[in-house]
Protein backbone atom coordinates (compact mmCIF):
# COMPACT_ATOMS: atom_id res chain seq x y z
CA UNK A 1 0.00 0.00 0.00
CA UNK A 2 2.86 2.34 0.82
CA UNK A 3 4.33 1.68 -2.63
CA UNK A 4 1.01 2.60 -4.22
CA UNK A 5 0.90 5.92 -2.38
CA UNK A 6 4.49 6.68 -3.37
CA UNK A 7 3.68 6.01 -7.00
CA UNK A 8 0.53 8.10 -6.79
CA UNK A 9 2.48 11.02 -5.32
CA UNK A 10 5.18 10.65 -7.96
CA UNK A 11 2.66 10.70 -10.82
CA UNK A 12 0.97 13.75 -9.33
CA UNK A 13 4.26 15.60 -8.96
CA UNK A 14 5.45 14.70 -12.45
CA UNK A 15 2.16 15.65 -14.07
CA UNK A 16 2.27 19.01 -12.31
CA UNK A 17 5.84 19.53 -13.51
CA UNK A 18 4.79 18.82 -17.08
CA UNK A 19 1.81 21.17 -16.77
CA UNK A 20 4.06 23.90 -15.41
CA UNK A 21 6.45 23.55 -18.34
CA UNK A 22 3.60 23.61 -20.83
CA UNK A 23 2.28 26.84 -19.33
CA UNK A 24 5.74 28.43 -19.34
CA UNK A 25 6.36 27.43 -22.94
CA UNK A 26 2.95 28.66 -24.08
CA UNK A 27 3.59 32.05 -22.48
CA UNK A 28 6.94 32.31 -24.23
CA UNK A 29 5.48 31.28 -27.59
CA UNK A 30 2.56 33.68 -27.23
CA UNK A 31 4.97 36.56 -26.67
CA UNK A 32 7.22 35.47 -29.54
CA UNK A 33 4.33 35.23 -31.99
CA UNK A 34 3.02 38.59 -30.84
CA UNK A 35 6.42 40.18 -31.47
CA UNK A 36 6.68 38.54 -34.89
CA UNK A 37 3.23 39.65 -35.98
CA UNK A 38 3.97 43.19 -34.73
CA UNK A 39 7.12 43.21 -36.84
CA UNK A 40 5.12 42.18 -39.91
CA UNK A 41 2.53 44.86 -39.15
CA UNK A 42 5.30 47.42 -39.05
CA UNK A 43 6.66 46.19 -42.38
CA UNK A 44 3.19 46.43 -43.89
CA UNK A 45 2.82 50.03 -42.75
CA UNK A 46 6.22 50.92 -44.20
CA UNK A 47 5.46 49.41 -47.62
CA UNK A 48 3.56 51.02 -50.47
CA UNK A 49 0.24 49.29 -51.10
CA UNK A 50 0.96 49.12 -54.81
CA UNK A 51 4.13 47.06 -54.35
CA UNK A 52 4.19 43.29 -54.61
CA UNK A 53 5.97 43.16 -51.24
CA UNK A 54 2.95 44.73 -49.60
CA UNK A 55 0.67 41.94 -50.81
CA UNK A 56 3.22 39.31 -49.78
CA UNK A 57 3.50 40.80 -46.30
CA UNK A 58 -0.27 40.78 -45.86
CA UNK A 59 -0.43 37.13 -46.94
CA UNK A 60 2.52 36.21 -44.68
CA UNK A 61 0.80 37.87 -41.74
CA UNK A 62 -2.33 35.87 -42.47
CA UNK A 63 -0.42 32.58 -42.79
CA UNK A 64 1.50 33.05 -39.55
CA UNK A 65 -1.65 34.17 -37.74
CA UNK A 66 -3.34 30.95 -38.80
CA UNK A 67 -0.39 28.83 -37.68
CA UNK A 68 -0.45 30.58 -34.33
CA UNK A 69 -4.16 29.87 -34.07
CA UNK A 70 -3.59 26.16 -34.79
CA UNK A 71 -0.75 26.05 -32.30
CA UNK A 72 -2.67 27.88 -29.57
CA UNK A 73 -5.66 25.57 -29.92
CA UNK A 74 -3.51 22.42 -29.74
CA UNK A 75 -1.59 23.64 -26.72
CA UNK A 76 -4.75 24.66 -24.90
CA UNK A 77 -6.03 21.11 -25.43
CA UNK A 78 -2.79 19.72 -24.01
CA UNK A 79 -2.93 22.01 -21.00
CA UNK A 80 -6.57 21.19 -20.33
CA UNK A 81 -5.75 17.47 -20.56
CA UNK A 82 -2.98 17.80 -17.97
CA UNK A 83 -5.21 19.84 -15.65
CA UNK A 84 -7.81 17.09 -15.83
CA UNK A 85 -5.15 14.51 -14.97
CA UNK A 86 -4.12 16.50 -11.91
CA UNK A 87 -7.76 16.68 -10.79
CA UNK A 88 -8.19 12.93 -11.34
CA UNK A 89 -5.12 12.17 -9.23
CA UNK A 90 -6.28 14.53 -6.50
CA UNK A 91 -9.66 12.79 -6.51
CA UNK A 92 -7.98 9.42 -6.04
CA UNK A 93 -5.90 10.80 -3.17
CA UNK A 94 -9.10 12.05 -1.51
CA UNK A 95 -10.62 8.55 -1.37
CA UNK A 96 -10.60 7.23 2.21
CA UNK A 97 -10.68 3.57 1.17
CA UNK A 98 -7.05 2.82 0.27
CA UNK A 99 -7.93 -0.41 -1.52
CA UNK A 100 -10.51 1.32 -3.70
CA UNK A 101 -8.09 4.18 -4.37
CA UNK A 102 -5.36 1.76 -5.39
CA UNK A 103 -7.69 -0.13 -7.73
CA UNK A 104 -8.72 3.12 -9.40
CA UNK A 105 -5.12 4.24 -9.72
CA UNK A 106 -4.13 0.90 -11.25
CA UNK A 107 -6.89 1.33 -13.83
CA UNK A 108 -5.04 4.32 -15.28
CA UNK A 109 -1.49 3.23 -14.50
CA UNK A 110 -0.70 -0.46 -14.58
CA UNK A 111 0.82 -1.78 -11.40
CA UNK A 112 3.93 -3.06 -13.18
CA UNK A 113 4.36 0.10 -15.26
CA UNK A 114 7.85 1.45 -14.68
CA UNK A 115 7.88 4.95 -13.25
CA UNK A 116 10.87 7.25 -13.47
CA UNK A 117 12.25 8.85 -10.37
CA UNK A 118 10.90 12.38 -10.21
CA UNK A 119 14.43 13.82 -10.17
CA UNK A 120 15.24 12.00 -13.41
CA UNK A 121 11.90 12.95 -14.94
CA UNK A 122 12.50 16.61 -14.10
CA UNK A 123 16.02 16.47 -15.56
CA UNK A 124 14.70 15.02 -18.83
CA UNK A 125 11.93 17.60 -18.89
CA UNK A 126 14.36 20.49 -18.49
CA UNK A 127 16.72 19.15 -21.15
CA UNK A 128 13.91 18.59 -23.67
CA UNK A 129 12.52 22.06 -23.02
CA UNK A 130 15.91 23.70 -23.57
CA UNK A 131 16.52 21.87 -26.86
CA UNK A 132 13.01 22.49 -28.14
CA UNK A 133 13.21 26.17 -27.27
CA UNK A 134 16.49 26.50 -29.16
CA UNK A 135 14.86 25.09 -32.28
CA UNK A 136 11.86 27.36 -31.93
CA UNK A 137 14.04 30.45 -31.49
CA UNK A 138 16.12 29.50 -34.53
CA UNK A 139 13.04 29.22 -36.74
CA UNK A 140 11.55 32.48 -35.51
CA UNK A 141 14.87 34.23 -36.14
CA UNK A 142 14.99 32.78 -39.67
CA UNK A 143 11.53 34.19 -40.37
CA UNK A 144 12.56 37.59 -39.02
CA UNK A 145 15.70 37.41 -41.12
CA UNK A 146 13.66 36.78 -44.25
CA UNK A 147 11.48 39.76 -43.40
CA UNK A 148 14.48 42.02 -42.89
CA UNK A 149 16.28 40.81 -46.01
CA UNK A 150 13.19 41.18 -48.15
CA UNK A 151 13.06 37.57 -49.36
CA UNK A 152 9.31 37.66 -48.93
CA UNK A 153 8.27 35.49 -51.87
CA UNK A 154 10.50 32.66 -50.64
CA UNK A 155 9.15 32.95 -47.12
CA UNK A 156 5.57 33.03 -48.38
CA UNK A 157 6.20 29.93 -50.49
CA UNK A 158 7.56 28.04 -47.46
CA UNK A 159 4.61 29.04 -45.27
CA UNK A 160 2.12 28.13 -48.03
CA UNK A 161 3.68 24.70 -48.44
CA UNK A 162 3.55 24.09 -44.72
CA UNK A 163 -0.07 25.24 -44.50
CA UNK A 164 -1.04 22.92 -47.35
CA UNK A 165 0.71 19.98 -45.72
CA UNK A 166 -1.04 20.80 -42.46
CA UNK A 167 -4.45 20.74 -44.17
CA UNK A 168 -3.70 17.46 -45.90
CA UNK A 169 -2.45 15.97 -42.67
CA UNK A 170 -5.60 16.98 -40.83
CA UNK A 171 -7.76 15.38 -43.53
CA UNK A 172 -5.75 12.18 -43.26
CA UNK A 173 -5.87 12.26 -39.49
CA UNK A 174 -2.11 11.87 -39.31
CA UNK A 175 0.70 13.54 -37.46
CA UNK A 176 0.69 17.33 -37.35
CA UNK A 177 3.10 18.61 -39.98
CA UNK A 178 4.25 21.24 -37.53
CA UNK A 179 5.56 18.63 -35.14
CA UNK A 180 9.16 17.49 -35.21
CA UNK A 181 9.15 14.27 -37.26
CA UNK A 182 11.69 12.65 -34.93
CA UNK A 183 9.99 13.36 -31.63
CA UNK A 184 6.33 12.85 -30.78
CA UNK A 185 4.75 15.71 -28.92
CA UNK A 186 4.48 14.31 -25.38
CA UNK A 187 1.01 15.57 -24.67
CA UNK A 188 -0.32 14.17 -27.94
CA UNK A 189 1.16 10.74 -27.27
CA UNK A 190 0.67 10.42 -23.53
CA UNK A 191 -2.43 9.17 -21.81
CA UNK A 192 -3.38 9.63 -18.18
CA UNK A 193 -0.15 7.96 -17.09
CA UNK A 194 1.96 10.47 -19.02
CA UNK A 195 4.82 10.86 -16.50
CA UNK A 196 5.62 7.15 -16.64
CA UNK A 197 5.49 6.61 -20.39
CA UNK A 198 9.20 6.88 -21.15
CA UNK A 199 12.30 8.95 -20.57
CA UNK A 200 11.50 11.26 -23.47
CA UNK A 201 8.12 12.29 -22.10
CA UNK A 202 9.19 15.88 -21.64
CA UNK A 203 8.17 19.36 -22.66
CA UNK A 204 8.35 19.63 -26.44
CA UNK A 205 5.85 22.36 -27.05
CA UNK A 206 8.13 24.46 -29.23
CA UNK A 207 8.76 21.78 -31.82
CA UNK A 208 5.04 21.63 -32.54
CA UNK A 209 5.13 24.87 -34.50
CA UNK A 210 7.03 24.33 -37.71
CA UNK A 211 9.13 21.72 -39.47
CA UNK A 212 12.78 21.74 -38.47
CA UNK A 213 15.18 24.30 -39.90
CA UNK A 214 16.75 22.06 -42.53
CA UNK A 215 13.40 21.12 -44.05
CA UNK A 216 12.37 24.76 -44.21
CA UNK A 217 15.54 25.74 -46.00
CA UNK A 218 15.20 22.89 -48.47
CA UNK A 219 11.81 24.05 -49.65
Molecular structure report:
With 219 residues, the protein is mainly α. 74% of the residues lie in helices and 0% in strands. The chain is built from seven helices and no strands. The protein has helices at residues 2-46, 52-93, 98-108, 118-149, 152-172, 186-189, 213-218. α1 (2-46) runs parallel beside α4 (118-149). The radius of gyration is 21 Å and the shape is elongated. The model is unreliable at 174-219 (pLDDT under 50).
- What's the average pLDDT? 79
Count of discrete alpha- or pi-helical segments spanning 4 or more residues: 7
Order of helices and strands: HHHHHHH
The 3D shape can be described as: elongated
Beta-strand level of the residues, as a percent range? under 5%
Number of strands: 0
Describe the structure concisely.
The protein has 219 residues and is mostly helical. It is built from 7 helices and no strands. It has helices spanning 2-46, 52-93, 98-108, 118-149, 152-172, 186-189, 213-218.
List keywords for this structure.
219 residues; mainly alpha; 74% helix
Write the layout of secondary structure elements.
Blueprint: H1 2-46, H2 52-93, H3 98-108, H4 118-149, H5 152-172, H6 186-189, H7 213-218
Helix pairs in contact: 1-2, 1-4, 2-5
Amino acid sequence: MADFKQRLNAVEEQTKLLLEKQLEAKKYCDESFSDLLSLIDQKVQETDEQEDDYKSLVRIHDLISKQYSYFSSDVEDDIQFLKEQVKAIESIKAIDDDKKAEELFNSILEEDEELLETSEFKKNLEEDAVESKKGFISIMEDIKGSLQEGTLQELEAVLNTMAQEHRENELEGGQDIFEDDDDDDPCDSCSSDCPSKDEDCGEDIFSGLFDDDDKKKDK
